[in-house]
Specification:
625 residues; alpha/beta; Substrate Binding Domain Of Dnak, Chain:A, Domain 2; Rossmann fold; 6-stranded parallel beta sheet; 49% helix; binds FE(4)-NI(1)-S(4) cluster; binds iron/sulfur cluster
């Protein structure tokens, strides 16, 4: 990872970022990189996970000199408990997002909203039938009622195991059963983690770690998977379309609105509102050429996948987008939204609008979105943006040039259709060694790294090795800006991958969505394993989150590993203060669940590490190089 004091060139690989960083410096605007310097060196107790604040006999920070907390907890217990709560936080984020999606489906089913509809009825019926709900001769809304009830039940304590465990290969389910980590209700696993980690409960680090796995599995195979499937049902299942990425998507002569956060429930309504002819006319009346909408982070991914809305940037671009001076309004729901955006916005005319009661920001205006007012509120937000246009100081506007083209929208539904209805052709390509394996590169930016250096270079290295790369979350924008998400990128791929992707007309790096959409990748892995009659851990697959920062990314990494997929991280979570926990993560889990974590900050070395794993798995399946 990078040293802390960085030149502008060292902060990001991108010219659009550098241009805005120079401007921020000139205008005296503080960014995440500046605050990182102020926070460095980080507290080493916190960094290694050995600081415990779980009760008021403490806080305790254990060391060689004082190896036990007041209660007697050692470093292993403290680290495992902290990690467990970290995973609970991440799982709660994805899963509560999923719950909001179910609420919308439920409201539609019960006729309680005109603001949302079921766009993909075929998918609704297919998923309902898959989960054992009667569909024949029944109306769509009747089926939707049952499906929303079943999904709600996945959050409580009613189920012995989660509904989508029907998608998990039998061998994998047996592993979970033997370890006692078959996930039950989403909320149940999260609440149990909070209980276990209360003072005086689970004081066996390995046991707490197993529950971390269980909690994350509830995220991957339920919270996130439900979020994805319900979003497709409500807003349409993605299929390939073109879009654009980088700050150049912001337009000098238009009212610019950015959506940031995660849930399409809010952002899809904003898309509709910016296309309202009356509002467009109003914007023109105010002197703008029109209304321009662009995305940030994961809600940007959701809109790009389904609607082709351009992507202004990933996590570390969010402050810099405002520095263009051309953003009238930024509307957010929740997760990954830096509170500093309000401050940066105040340096310009940029208004920040929050929409969820669970994510208010001091200094922002709150426009609460509910199931039955989404459209009205979206129009209100767009009107607010139009009003801000007159306040813009055009002399302070500086927008980087040249957005990059990309192709998005690779849902499993599309992939299966393109392959003729089954995964067999994909497996044939894997068996023949044309595609040697597949790696999901997911997650974030973190100012401890040169922005997107690892994300981009790892992606490039893997496709060179004939490894298909699937991207989600903030890595997507990195891959897009690097020109890796277009069919022409096959020129950068190895000969086998080039041949297969070339014949299908698809890029060697496929955008599969937002972070909850990693559930699509789990499902695809399960389909491949089932087709071969093996476990997921037998497949030449890996996951990677090179520049991760969030609790959610840690939850994704953990459910990946617990599902049998080796997962590379650029840096470890705050666990290094415990040998038991660290060894479990780096090796021990391999024996228990058939996969583990690998840590490597250098993307070129990481590519080798992942490649070794893929070779191992190919040999295990009797496949040649
Ligand atoms: Fe957040 Fe989802 Fe990470 Fe991006 S990738 S910084 S978690 S927005 Ni999810
Ligand atoms: Fe200290 Fe134990 Fe309380 Fe943690 S739970 S703060 S280690 S006394």
């Amino acid at each position: 990872m990078a040293k802390t004091i960085q030149t502008i060139e060292e902060k990001s690989i991108w010219e659009d970022a550098r241009q805005m960083l120079r401007r921020a410096e000139k205008e005296g605007i503080e960014t995440a990189w500046d605050r990182l310097v102020q926070q460095t060196p980080h507290c080493s107790f916190g960094e290694s996970g050995v600081c415990c604040r779980l009760c008021t006999m403490g806080p305790c920070r254990v060391s060689k000199k004082a190896p036990l907390g007041v209660c007697g907890a050692d470093a292993d217990v403290i680290v495992a408990r902290n990690f467990g709560r970290f995973i609970a936080g991440g799982s709660a984020g994805h899963s509560d997002h999923g719950r909001d999606c179910i609420e919308a489906l439920h409201a539609v089913a019960h006729g309680e909203t005109d603001d949302y509809t079921i766009k993909d009825e075929a998918k609704l019926l297919r998923i309902a039938a898959e989960l054992g709900i009667a569909v024949d001769g029944r109306g769509v809304l009747e089926v939707a009622k049952d499906l929303s009830e079943l999904f709600f039940a996945n959050y409580g304590s009613q189920l012995e195991e989660l509904s989508f465990l029907s998608r998990v290969p039998a061998k994998r389910k047996a592993i979970w059963r033997n370890l006692g980590i078959t996930p039950r209700g989403v909320d149940r696993e999260i609440a149990e983690m909070m209980h276990r980690t209360h003072m005086g409960c689970d004081n066996d680090a390995a046991n707490t770690m197993l529950h971390s796995a269980r909690t994350s599995l509830a995220d991957g195979w339920a919270g996130s998977m439900i979020a994805t499937e319900v979003s497709d049902i409500l807003f349409g299942t993605p299929s390939p379309r073109k879009s654009l990425a980088n700050l150049g998507v912001i337009k000098k002569d238009q009212v610019n609105i950015l959506v940031h956060g995660h849930n399409p429930i809010v952002s899809e309504k904003i898309v509709e509102a910016v296309n309202d002819p009356e509002l467009i006319a109003l914007a023109k009346e105010k002197g703008a050429a029109g209304i321009n909408l662009a995305g940030l982070c994961c809600t940007g991914n959701e809109l790009m996948m389904r609607q082709g809305i351009p992507m202004a940037g990933n996590h570390l671009m969010t402050e810099l987008a405002i520095v263009t001076g051309a953003v009238e309004l930024i509307v957010v729901d929740y997760q990954c939204i830096m509170p500093s955006l309000v401050t940066v916005g105040n340096c310009y005319h940029t208004k920040m609008v929050t929409t969820a009661d669970k994510a208010k920001f001091a200094g922002a205006e709150h426009v609460k979105f509910e199931m039955d007012n989404g459209m009205a509120q979206a129009k209100k937000v767009v009107r607010m943006a139009i009003d801000r246009y007159a306040l813009r100081d055009q002399a302070r506007v500086e927008i980087p040039e040249g957005p990059v083209e990309l192709v998005t929208g690779f849902s499993n539904e599309f992939l299966l259709e393109a392959l003729g209805g089954t995964v067999t052709p994909l497996l044939d390509a894997i068996k023949a060694g044309k595609i040697r394996g597949a790696v999901a590169i997911v997650g974030c930016n973190n100012p401890k790294y040169q922005q997107d250096f690892c994300n981009v270079n790892l992606t490039r290295e893997l496709i060179k090795k004939d490894i298909l790369v699937l991207v989600t979350g903030c890595v997507t924008t990195a891959a897009g800006k690097a020109g890796l998400l277009v069919p022409e990128a096959i020129e950068m791929a190895g000969p086998g991958l080039k041949e297969i992707c070339g014949s299908l007309g698809i890029p060697p790096v496929l955008h599969m969505g937002s972070c909850v959409d990693n559930a699509r990748i789990l499902q695809l892995a399960a389909l491949l394993a089932d087709e071969l009659g093996v476990d997921i851990s037998d497949l030449p697959l890996a996951g990677s989150s090179p520049e991760w920062y969030s609790e959610k990314a840690a939850a994704i990494g953990t459910y990946c590993v617990a599902s049998g997929i080796y997962t590379h991280l650029g840096h470890p979570p705050n666990i290094t203060g415990s040998e038991v926990v660290t060894n479990l993560a780096l090796t021990g889990l391999d024996e228990l669940v058939g996969a583990c974590f690998g840590i490597e900050p250098d993307p070129f070395k990481a590519a080798e590490l992942i490649d070794e794993r893929i070779k191992l798995k190919r040999r295990g399946l009797g496949l040649g190089e």
